[in-house]
């Protein structure tokens, strides 16, 4: 499941990827044009797996490879200033 969120500082794409065991993704992004707020829940993957996040060029990444992150709590990056 891939979702694009567009904002004044660029677009963010996140992709929920279910693993071999999970096989079940629940996404709250159900309609095109729906407004979302920062820190709102976007869905979940039953039994784990992963989420890939694609940020705009120029974003300052605040986490390192291997860091443990928690949804809605860990700041992943700061986006570049709007143009």
List the defining traits of the structure above:
83 residues; mainly beta; two-stranded antiparallel sheet; 35% strand
Notes on the structure:
With 83 residues, the chain is mainly beta. It has one domain (2-78). Helices cover 0% and strands 35% of the residues. The protein has no helices and seven strands. It has strands spanning 2-7, 10-17, 25-27, 43-45, 50-54, 60-61, 77-78. The strands form three sheets. It has a three-stranded antiparallel β-sheet, with no helix packed on it. A two-stranded antiparallel ribbon has the order 3-4. A two-stranded antiparallel sheet has the order 6-7. Strand 1 (2-7) and strand 2 (10-17) form a beta hairpin. It is globular. It starts with a strand and ends in a 5-residue tail after the last strand. The relative contact order is 0.26. The mean pLDDT is 85.
Task: Tell me the total number of β-strands.
Answer: 7
Major β-sheet strand ordering: 1-2-5
Main β sheet profile: 3 strands, antiparallel
Q: Any idea how many domains? A: 1
Strand content: 25-35%
Order of helices and strands: EEEEEEE
How large, in whole angstroms, is the Cα Rg?
Answer: 13 Å
Distance between the termini: 29 Å
Structural class: mainly beta
Q: Name the shape in a single word.
A: globular
State the helicity in percent bands.
under 10%
Unreliable residue stretches: none
Averaging pLDDT over every residue, what do you get? 85
How many helical elements? 0
List the helices and strands and how they pair.
Blueprint: E1 2-7, E2 10-17, E3 25-27, E4 43-45, E5 50-54, E6 60-61, E7 77-78
Antiparallel strand pairs: 1-2, 2-5, 3-4, 6-7
């Amino acid at each position: 499941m891939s979702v694009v969120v567009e904002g004044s500082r660029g677009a963010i794409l996140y992709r929920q990827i279910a693993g071999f065991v999970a096989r079940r993704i629940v996404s709250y992004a159900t309609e095109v044009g729906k407004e979302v707020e920062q820190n709102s829940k976007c869905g979940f993957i039953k039994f784990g797996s992963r989420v890939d996040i694609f940020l705009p060029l120029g974003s300052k990444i605040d986490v390192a490879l291997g860091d443990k992150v928690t949804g809605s709590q860990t700041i992943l990056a700061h986006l570049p200033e709007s143009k």
